[in-house]
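[job 4417] fold queue: 2 targets
>>> target A
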Amino acid sequence: MALIQFSQNSLIEAGCDEAGRGCLAGPVYAAAVILNPKKRIKGLDDSKKLSDAMRYSLRPEIEDKALAFAVASLTNAEIDQFNILKSSFLAMHKAIKLLQVKPQLLLIDGNRFIPYEGIPHQCEIKGDARFQAIAAASILAKTYRDDYMKEIHQEFPAYAWDKNMGYPTVSHRAAISKFGVTPFHRLSFKLLPTQLQLF
């Protein structure tokens, strides 16, 4: 089923999504995208439904054809400070603030959001599979975060962040059990089935 390009036709709307909420390590990333109605982008879909190669091939096209886009993040330390849900919203706020075109309506993937500077918003459950702008934001957030995780993997290769991207895989948790935590781990998360294994 084709994704909806715009939810309405009178306001400038930005699609917003995040990546990395369920990870044990690394930042949470968010992106905001304002699409150009005159420049269609074929193949937009929820980033989770696309292959890695498809996501990376769509990224430059999104950046080239969008009226505006921005990507932002909050660190694992900030996630520990604010909690992951609030950090996801704050990362979206940072991305929205960076947009070169001010949106008049925000399409938010999910069912909750902290309002941003008086701009109306609509929460859309599974919005990344329904609206093109949210799908575009999901692709940017995912690929930029993956790039970052591959970069810090070079410093801590034992955790295989170039493959698991910080998600709680068996091998990632085995590495935490064997080597302990790194400066990139989210200490407020349950890193192992029992925290006692860390000590």
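>>> target B
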Amino acid sequence: MIKEFLTSLFESPKLKEAKSFGHLYESIALIAREERCSEAWMPHRNQCKKFILESLKLSLHFESVLILGSGPIHEIPIEELSKKFKKVVCVDIVHLKSTKKRVQHLKNIEFREHDLTESESELTKGILKTVVPTAFTNENWGLVLSVNIMSQLPRHLEEYIDKNFKGKFSEEQVNAYLEMITQNHLRYLETFHSPVALITDTEVHYLDSNNKMLENHLEFQHLKLPTPKTEWIWDLAPIPEFQKDIAIKMKVRAYHLNNRNSH
């Protein structure tokens, strides 16, 4: 905790929401969690990279690739993408200095900070308003990647509402708002004129020390997703990362979205 706090003091994110919504601290904490769980997370990372590389065959061209939810880029085959595309654009609400430093030898990598919900500024005013994002849709991408971000988009919004507007909205209002956030991300991906590869967790499994299922949460029952190209289990929080006697695993699915404009 102390290390994460000290690291946050030296970061200067471009967007004020990066701090007010907890994105900065979560990004720093994620690095620490990845270090603790590196062995358990490695199969997931490798599966993500494999699927992304397999998706290159869909690219319309190799001028540019857009990565939404790039984060610390541990799940991105960044070296391979840098060699394949003339320009690689990484988008997230915050990119840590350590992430940028790690790939500074790759001269065709661009980092852009953006709120991928395009709803956080409205929420700071106490307004539950969602939109289908429009950023980057007018650029001519060879391929678009959405990597482990869709299920995370509502989480910081929900925490912000609970912290700042508790009691202002009904549970039904909040749930409908959060569902629209993921619905709009899917609609956003469908507006691109290029092929889109989507990787997202779709189920959360809580298991005891004997690997017996205690709870199973389905993430996207409100969405119409296509048949996944592949799926795997992400050993997200082995015992005792989450609790001393409970582990968390996620079912991750990977999709190719058949955008009408990409053919």
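[job 4417] complete. Note on B: Strands lie at 64-68, 87-92, 109-113, 143-147, 196-208, 213-218, 230-237, 246-257.
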